[in-house]
Every structure is written in C-alpha cells, then in structure tokens.
Amino acid sequence: MACHEPTLPRRALLACTALSMVFANADAISLPADLDQAIRAYDAATISSDVAALSRLIADDYMLVNSDSSVENKSQYLADFHLPGFHIDPYVMEEPLLKVWDRFALTGGLLPLSWTQDGVRHQRRVRIVHAWVKSEHRWQIAYTQLTRIPSEGL
Q1: Cα–Cα distance measured from residue 42 to residue 39, given in angstroms and rounded to the nearest whole number
Q2: Residue 144: alpha-carbon gap to chain centroid
Q3: Does residue 38 contact residue 44 with C-beta atoms inside 8 Å?
Q4: Cα–Cα distance, 84 to 98 (Å, whole number)
Q5: 20 to 30 Å CA-CA from 3: which of 9, 30, 50, 74?
Q6: What is the pTM of this model?
Q7: Number of independent structural domains in the chain
C-alpha cells in the first residue's frame, strides 16, 4: 500500500486525529494502570508536540489510516508535529470506546477537533480508534484509523 504525501491542512488533521483519548466520562471506565499512564503520556506529548516521547509511545511498525484512506507510517506521522504554527486546542472524547484484553486494547470514540495551522483555525469531527499493543512491558500504539464525520448544513 503506497503512502501519500499529505497537504499541510490535511497533515494538521492527521496530527490532531492521532491524538489519544481524553474520555468524557473517565470515572466510568476502568483502565489498567500502565495503559492509563501510556494514554496520559501520549496525550501530553501530543499537546506539547514532544516528538521524542511520541516516538517511544508509537510502535516502529505503526500505521495511520486517514479518513481519505491514505496511509502514513511512524516517521510520516511524527513529521506532522514539526509543522509551523501548529497548535491543538483542548478536547474531550465523546462516546468513548474502550476494549482491553491481556496485551491488546482499543481506545477511541467521537473526537471534536479544533486546531490552528499557520494562523488558520480548523475544526472537524472524526471517529477515531487506536490499537494499543503491550510488548516488552510497555504499551504502544500500533495502529490508528479515523473516519471523518460530514459537516451538517454544508
């Protein structure tokens, strides 16, 4: 499967949608402590564009499937965080999804996104799912897929 070079606005979306979950009702969801810690670290690294931390939290064979069906690998995903003027606004995951097995977990939900890229404000809603895998005693994201929700009234 070929990887496509995304445009700057689309790359901003990719960086945003690759976010981990801030669950709308976190108290109702029980996570293993080490997975919860990995998700929180991923959230913090994503918001602060900490590429070194993200690199540790993303598996080497990571695959991101975008809402237009294009695919990015780990290095392409991490490059998105170097875009000039990029800032992700605070967000809350709606309709959270959480499925946890021994060494595998799915997290996701409905994600309302807003961000600034090169002085231009963007926003959209997507459904997102992250596949987390535990190996060598740590959780990493191995796969992310997103589906763009069409804007109403357009």
Answers
A1: 5
A2: 7
A3: no
A4: 33
A5: 50
A6: 0.77
A7: 1
Enumerate the β-bridge partners of residue 87: 116
Q: Say how far apart CA 68 and CA 24 lie, in whole Å.
A: 27
Note whether 147 and 64 are within 8 A (CB).
Answer: no
Distance CA 128, CA 117 (A): 21
- Residue (of 24, 20, 44, 40) closest to 32 by Cα position: 40
What domain range is 26 assigned to?
8-149
Q: Has residue 154 been placed in a domain?
A: no
In this prediction, residue 29 has a pLDDT band, given cuts at 50, 70 and 90, of: low
Q: How many CB atoms lie within 10 A of CB 126?
A: 21
Pairing mode, strands 138-149 and 104-117: unpaired
Average pLDDT over residues 99-127: 90
CATH of the domain at 107: 3.10.450.50
- Distance (Å, whole) CA 51 – CA 97: 26
pLDDT over threshold 60, residue 123: yes
